[in-house]
Amino acid sequence: MSLSLYGAQADDTTFRKKLRRLEQNVLRMGTMVETTFRLSHQALFNRDLTVVDGISRLDDEIDCYYRQIEVSCTELIIQQGLVAQDLRIISAFMQLVRDIERIGDYAEDLSEIAVKLFAYPVHSCMGEIEAMSHHAQAMLAKSLVALGDLDGTSGAAIKRLDDVVDDAYDRLYQTIAYQRDIVGVVEPLVLMTLVIRSLERMADHATNIGQRVSYIVTGQRN
Amino acid sequence: MRQFLLGFAIACVGLIWLRHDQNQQILSLLRLFKHPDSRKDSKTPLWIQLRYAIKLSLAHQEKLANLLEISQALLQNAPIGYLQVDEEDRLIYCNHQAEQILSLQGWPSQKHRLFLEVIHSYELDQLLGQTRDQQTPAVKEWLYHPVCVDGNQLKQQQGTFLKASSLPLPERQVGVYLENQQQLIELSQNHHQWFIDLAHELRTPLTAINLVAEYLAKRIAEEDRPWLQQLQNQTHRLIELVQNWLELSRTHQHPLKTLQPQSVELCSLIQEVWQGLALLGEEKQITLDIKTPDQVWLSADRTRLGQVFTNVLHNAIKHSPAQAVVYLEIHQTSSGDSPYVEVNVIDTGSGFSSADLPYIFERYYRGNSDHSYHEFGHGLGLAIVEEIILAHGGSITARNHPETAGAWLQITLPTDSQI
């Protein structure tokens, strides 16, 4: 079953329409954050700073949607006669947009770091960090697909992917923190630490999204 | 007996009236079936006319069904992609090519799902919304990335250049044609690279030839000098030619310098940009007070100019206090005999700090003070705005407005130039 086909029997009540509009806005916000993440990846690893302006504009728009969705959720929740799954969906949305919005914020942070890192030569760790970023992006995509498909089983799979990102974080942290013979300032190392920290947090938020989808479907919290 | 006759007469009248009523109903049915071939012969009994009309209509219906089947087959197998969404952005149709282009899996089981559930594309979403709101066709080109849930594959994924042309349909549905531009882009890139390589390859031997000719010039007999002069002239010509090629390819690598001019109506362009920012404006309840002539036409690159006003108006919204007004005025004027248009964008924010003012158009410059106007944009925004305006032969100046104390950006663009 997918999100939009859920509850299709009572297809055209005003409530269903409002719920579908809400779902659409949540998915739209997700797609915008995916775009922001992709652009910040481009700024960071392809050293393409022309995308930076677009990111901050997108992030402002994402924040607008975030606030709008919260208001719509509250409006829907105070209606009478909601069944358990409706309530679960709406309350999960309220939490899940918070996760999506945080990922967007981290993506904007990454683009700001990209501007500062631009001045320094490319560090040998960047290849591995790029792979970590790809994994985090794939997790976000997977969690949004799970949301669209209302797939309660993806939650566990996304959690396993999170372990890959966590391992990469630990490994990279070791490499960066214990580097010796540093020539010049430590700013690039500090910035790279911030990058891996942000990526690790983004992956965590993607995991949360997967978990919340499972909650919508099964009503069980993992 | 009289009672019988009376009863009989009443029954007759009733029967005739009933009959008349039935005839009227058949006639109105016939009018419903109105068909060019239907007989207008009033002598044929009505029920025969009705039967004939139904027969014709059934045949017509069959013909239409056939036509529909053909059209659907044509659309399904068309070499360009086509998809259609309903008023709530649910996918209701998607042809074979569109499935391929978008890497959709499992269509048609995806039918009636929200398109954002299956296609994660912010650009396509924007195009659909814009087409539905403005009820006009639109075109968008962008690099499309299909949904990818494998981190290792993501590294290889390059994305596909797509061109989407939308069409508003009845009942607020929207249709979109999709074309894969990837090959075209690659071809033009290859072609371009080939061109640069060739120029580089030619330059080295030409420089060598020129050096040898200079060396020889000092050593050959006076009477042979004109021949050598000829050789040197031709070599110089070739070197210059190659140099020009390389120069050209360099401008190609800086797309800002290569504009695609077309006839643009400035006022509607600005309105369009403002609508695009409406959500942000509404959030802070900011209104745009716009004073423009009816129409201002100029020759410009529409996309680039749109980028300029998006940037400028976004800045104005961002730095205005809530419920403020952003003023935008357009004047047509001229200096000497060259006409130009002047666009003033004035906000009521805190304006530029005087320390930042001289540098705001510099690349990567960011304002020092915490609340500076320029902190948004990481230093590239206004630099790009200026670059685009300059490339159009215009100018841009920034200062603080004496009355509102907010930022005042003044942009001039020539109205008769051919860029």
Write the layout of secondary structure elements.
The complex is a heterodimer of chains A (222) and B (419).
Chain A lengths: L13 H32 L6 H26 L6 H34 L8 H24 L4 H24 L9 H32 L4
Helix pairs in contact in A: 1-2, 1-3, 1-4, 2-3, 3-6, 4-5, 4-6, 5-6
Chain B lengths: L1 H31 L13 H31 L4 E5 L5 E4 L1 H7 L12 H4 L3 H13 L3 E7 L6 H6 L3 E9 L5 E7 L1 H36 L7 H29 L8 E4 H11 L1 H6 L3 E5 L5 E4 L1 H18 L5 E11 L2 E9 L34 H11 L3 E6 L6 E8 L5
Would you give an account of this structure?
The complex is a heterodimer of chains A (222) and B (419). Chain A is mostly helical and 222 residues long. Chain A has a single domain, classed as Methane Monooxygenase Hydroxylase, Chain G, domain 1 (Up-down Bundle). Helices cover 77% and strands 0% of the residues of chain A. The model of chain A has no long low-confidence stretch (mean pLDDT 89). Chain B has 419 residues and is of the alpha+beta class. Chain B has 4 domains: 2-74; 79-180, PAS domain (Beta-Lactamase), CATH 3.30.450; 184-253, Signal transduction histidine kinase, dimerisation/phosphotransfer (DHp) domain (Helix Hairpins); 262-414, Heat Shock Protein 90. Helices cover 48% and strands 19% of the residues of chain B. Chain B has 12 helices and 12 strands. Chain B has helices spanning 2-32, 46-76, 96-102, 115-118, 122-134, 151-156, 182-217, 225-253, 266-276, 278-283, 302-319, 381-391, and strands spanning 81-85, 91-94, 138-144, 160-168, 174-180, 262-265, 287-291, 297-300, 325-335, 338-346, 395-400, 407-414. Chain B has a 5-stranded antiparallel sheet with strand order 2-1-5-4-3, with helices on both faces. The longest helix of chain B has 36 residues, at 182-217. The N and C termini of chain B lie far apart (105 Å). The A-B interface holds A 2-5, 17, 20-21, 23-24, 27-28, 30-32, 34-35, 38, 49-50, 52-53, 56-57, 60-61, 64, 67, 111-112, 115, 130-131, 134-139, 141-142, 144-145, 148-149, 161, 164 and B 88-90, 112-114, 116-118, 120-122, 125, 145, 147-155, 279-280, 283, 310-311, 314, 318, 364, 376-381, 384.
